[in-house]
Design brief:
246 residues, Rossmann fold, 2 domains, 8 helices, 34% helix, 24% strand, globular, binds adenosine-5'-triphosphate
């Protein structure tokens, strides 16, 4: 059974067709990326999955169950880190669980074992402004992971980071994924990031969104930055860029 399946999805916003006939899926423990031009409807598709956007047509299921807009079974990390500046790191980390109805004490106990693996141990009483950009993104990701939902939706998680931090974060996320095998759907504009992290990549057409290409990425794991020098990596990168530029 697929962790996530979208079939024949149509979305119209303000009279504008934003998604038309979209089909995609993610298998349990699979890392899937979506690449697409700006404004093509990627975030709108995530909005449907989180229950924030009402589709006109189509079917969406999580682990075989139809999407329930009131009890979302996806954990979503938005484009901006969206940490609340007035809450401590720990207070931010428990937020996703608290919104889902877990009391603060048990939520803290759930989050604490993850502080080490996410490189946040010792920083739980700081405020977001006291963290580096990479740490803030790790905190936002931990807040998402801690919700223990079947699917993680990551919307451009590293988009605002400088190039060095970004490549450190990509490497870190690949290692974390190796260890925990979350089911991930990642939106990115970065072809190399998609290829480095994913098992499969979807390319979206310009709006209205539909899948214009699907590429399987078979490079062995664990992946290291050496992969960027692999001729097969370069060939796949060129192919995806071609698809994106139409
Ligand atoms: N509430 C709305 N009413 C009308 N149009 C909207 C609304 N929300 C989004 N749109 C339009 O829908 C299209 C898709 O937007 P969306 O944010 O899903 O694209 P995206 O692929 O995530 O873009 P980006 O890569 O720039 O983040 C855009 O053209 C946007 O202007």
């Amino acid at each position: 059974m697929s962790a996530l399946r979208i079939s024949g999805l149509d979305v119209t916003l303000g009279g504008l067709p934003v998604v038309r006939g979209l089909d995609l899926h993610a298998e349990p423990g699979e890392f899937v990326s979506i690449l697409g031009p700006s404004g093509s409807g990627k975030s709108t598709t995530f909005g449907v999955l989180t229950g924030d956007v009402q589709p006109d047509a189509g079917e969406v299921s999580i682990e075989g169950q139809a999407l329930n807009r009131k009890a979302s079974r996806v954990a979503y990390m938005p484009q901006r880190d969206a940490l609340l500046p007035w809450r401590t790191v720990l207070g931010n980390l428990t937020l996703g669980l608290e919104v889902r109805g877990t009391k603060r004490g048990p939520a803290r106990e759930k989050v604490r074992p993850w502080l080490g693996p996410f490189g946040l141990a010792g920083f739980e009483d700081r405020y977001p402004a006291q963290l580096s950009g990479g740490m803030r993104q790790r905190a936002a990701l931990l807040r998402t992971v801690a919700q223990e939902q079947p699917v993680l939706l990551l919307d451009e998680p590293f988009g605002a980071l400088d190039a060095l931090t970004r490549s450190q974060m990509q490497r870190w996320l690949e290692q974390m994924w190796e260890q925990y095998r979350w089911t991930v759907l990642l939106i990115t504009h970065d072809v190399r990031e998609a290829l480095f992290l994913s098992d499969r990549v979807y390319v979206f057409s310009p709006r209205p969104a539909r899948v214009s290409a699907e590429v399987k990425v078979d490079f062995a794991r664990p992946r290291t930055p050496d992969l960027f020098g692999d001729p097969q990596f370069a060939a796949l990168e060129a192919k995806l860029l071609d698809q994106l530029l139409g």
